[in-house]
Amino acid sequence: MSDEEHHFESKADAGASKTFPQQAGTIRKNGYIVIKDRPCKVVEVSTSKTGKHGHAKCHFVAIDVFTAKKLEDIVPSSHNCDVPHVNRTDYQLIDISEDGFVSLLTENGSTKDDLKLPTDDTLLAQIKDGFAEGKDLVVSVMSAMGEEQICALKDIGPK
């Protein structure tokens, strides 16, 4: 046999899909949908009757989870839409660096240092003010389709 060693480098991820298919007719208000490659929360769904050419159509109005932009899409109700896997995780805030990154404490005791402060001005002010006052803060991090962003803040009392 051969004494050679073979090394394979893979640039792919582990294969966990960022989305899953769901029939358009089963997606409801407050659910999630992918429109123009963006994860969105559905705020309005209207369904038209079947027309001359067959399919009933679903008209989705949705808000981008991360940018809060309004997006719309029309899909035949029998077709599949992509639905993002959306997770929300709470972390305790440890530190805020000068370059706008936050240091968060995970449940297993390690730190997560790859998140930036949110772009939403009111949430940004609440986090900075609470941290400056020395309060114990817990931030909720929304993650979907490989993106993560701080979306909410909880005050769990003074340190």
From TrEMBL:
InterPro entries: IF5A-like, IF5A-like_N, IF5A_C, NA-bd_OB-fold, Rib_uL2_dom2, Trans_elong_IF5A_hypusine_site, Translation_prot_SH3-like_sf. GO terms for biological process: positive regulation of translational elongation; positive regulation of translational termination. eIF-5A seems to be the only eukaryotic protein to have a hypusine residue which is a post-translational modification of a lysine by the addition of a butylamino group. The keyword Protein biosynthesis applies. GO terms for molecular function: ribosome binding; translation elongation factor activity; translation initiation factor activity. Residues 85-154 form the Translation initiation factor 5A C-terminal domain. It comes from the Eukaryota. Keywords: Hypusine, Initiation factor, Protein biosynthesis. Residues 1-21 are annotated as: Disordered. Residues 1-12 have a biased composition (Basic and acidic residues). Translation factor that promotes translation elongation and termination, particularly upon ribosome stalling at specific amino acid sequence contexts. Binds between the exit (E) and peptidyl (P) site of the ribosome and promotes rescue of stalled ribosome: specifically required for efficient translation of polyproline-containing peptides as well as other motifs that stall the ribosome. Acts as a ribosome quality control (RQC) cofactor by joining the RQC complex to facilitate peptidyl transfer during CAT tailing step. Belongs to the eIF-5A family. This is Eukaryotic translation initiation factor 5A.
